[in-house]
Each structure stands twice: as structure tokens, then as C-alpha cells.
Amino acid sequence: MNTSRRPGWRGHRGPDVGARRPWSWWPGRPSLRLLRLLLLLCVCALAMFPPASANGAPPAPWSEKIFDQVRREYGEPAAQRLRSLHQLILSNQDLPVRDKLALVNTTLNRIPWATDAAHWRSEDYWATPLETIATFAGDCEDIAIAKWIMLRHLGIPSENLRLAFVQMRGSGENHMVLLYLDRVDVPWEQRRVEVLDNKDNEVRPGQDRDDLLAFYLMSGSGEMVVLADEGGRRQVKKIHANRKLQRLETIRQKLEANAAVYRQLNDGRPLIPD
Questions:
Q1: Which end of the chain is more exposed for a tag (fewer CB within 10 A), N or C?
Q2: pLDDT digits (tens, 9 = 90+) for 47-105
Q3: How far, in Å, CA of 89 to CA of 93, rounded?
């Protein structure tokens, strides 16, 4: 992967995709470590993003104690970044879905890309969305998770979002993107997919991203969809239930405990309405 960091809040455009062909869903054989990485991402998403409010109530402004805590842990610039992002969320609740996707993609693509080794002095560090925003750096997995949580704050249902492990065609670079599915009540092959990618400021339909080879999709409920290319058509090869995530229950509990701390700081209210 490209290890250069993007300065400030500038955006970043990805490569031209050239001729438009259907998005290739490739069976592939990513490493076991990468598969575990994807499962862990799903746990992070599930623990950090509670269900949307049943009555559709928009999120209320957070308590000042939230920003005070971030200021103590990460400094004033981090608190100001989080406050600006929170205000952006509160002021854009009524946008059409397509505009919400574009807003989230361009906003969080300003986060400079950095490897775990460079940013966290660790080969494989899992940053929470708050850490990604507060420290203003992250890799593709961290940025995809941050986009998920921002869309959840904007009222996008969790069932319409998927984390996707992909590979860049040609270079073979492993990559993570966030997908938005327009419908969840039709077979997979009939769903329209929009791709939010930290390498591209434009939200593109999956059929236009022929530079990506998709391996696995993960939902917030722990469902893993294995994709294959059968005669040039997108096919679901296998669907795994969330039983594979039970081994990561310790991580889930840690993240839920963290969410409980911020709920207490927010005067007993969850950061996203229950």
C-alpha cells in the first residue's frame, strides 16, 4: 500500500478506472491474518454502532463532558476536530442518502493515511473511530470504520452498510472500503452498491469500480458473505453466520465498556439514539 501521508484536510483522488465494466467479485485466497482482520473490523462496528432509533429521532447534541474528556486525552486540536464533525452531523440530518454518502466520504478522506507501524508503533493496531479522528491518521480499515460510524450518526441503518475486503486489480494491493447497499430485501445480485473509498473522493457505483476485486463483505451483525465470479456474473459463494465472531467476545466487551464510559459522560445518553 502507498505509505505516503496526505497533509491537512486535503482530499485524495484515486486512479482513473478507465472503461466501465461490471465490478469483479473474485473468489481469491487472502491470508488468514487478513480474514481475521476483517472479522475484527466487524466486531468493532457491531460494538460501536447500536441500532438506529425506533422512532427515527435525530441525535441530540453531546454533552460538553465528551469534548472535555477528548481534550484531556488527546489535546485541544482533537477536541475541536470532534466538535466540528459533530456539528456537521447535526446540521446534515435531512440530506438525501446520496448526499450523506458524499459528505462522509469527502470529509473523512481528509484524514491522512498512515500505517499502524508509523502511527501506533505497532504492526497491527486496531484504532477505534474516536482514536482515528482524535489522532488524525489511520489506514484504510480505520477510515472505513470511521465512515461507518459517521453514517450511522447521520441515520443510515446498519443493515445497509458493509465492510468489504478487496484487492486492487493489477497491483494486488489489499484494501478495505465501505459499501452502501440501496436495498436489503432483494437477492444480492439485484442490490445496487455504492463504494466509499479513501483512495477516491467520489462515491462510485460498484459496477464502475472495475479496479477492485472483492473477496468478502461483513455486516454489523457478523454476517460474512463470500463472493465469487461465476462466468462473469456476481455470485454469492457462501454466507457465514456470526458464530465465527464468538472467539472475539473479549474484544467486543472491551469496546462496549468504552462505549459505556462515553454514555456516562453524555449524561446517560448513548452517542447514537437507541
A1: C
A2: 444 444 434 566 789 999 999 999 999 999 999 999 999 999 999 999 999 999 999 99
A3: 7
- In degrees, to the nearest 5, what angle opens at C-alpha 227 toward C-alphas 231 and 242? 155
Take residue 232 and report the three cell numbers written for it. Answer: 462473469
Residue ranges of domains in the chain, CATH in brackets: 24-48+61-265 (3.10.620.30)
Q: Is the pTM of this model over 0.85?
A: no
Q: Pick the closest to residue 249 from 52, 39, 33, 35 (CA basis).
A: 39
Question: Strand 24-25 relative to strand 212-218: parallel, antiparallel, unpaired?
Answer: parallel
Where is pLDDT greater, at 255 or 152? 152
What's the rounded Cα separation, in Å, for the pair 61 and 52? 16
Say which range, 15-19, 69-73, 166-170, 258-262, has the weakest mean pLDDT: 15-19
211-240 confidence digits (pLDDT tens): 887 777 777 766 777 776 554 555 666 676
Contact 213, 169 (CB under 8 A): yes
How far is 116 from 246, CA to CA, in rounded Å?
25
CA distance 51 to 156: 10
Measured CA to CA, the distance from residue 129 to residue 131 in angstroms comes to 5
Q: Which range, 143-157, 214-228, 241-255, is most confident?
A: 143-157
Which grid cell sits at 247?
472467539
The three state secondary structure string of 151-175 is: HHHCCCCHHHEEEEEEEECCCCCEE
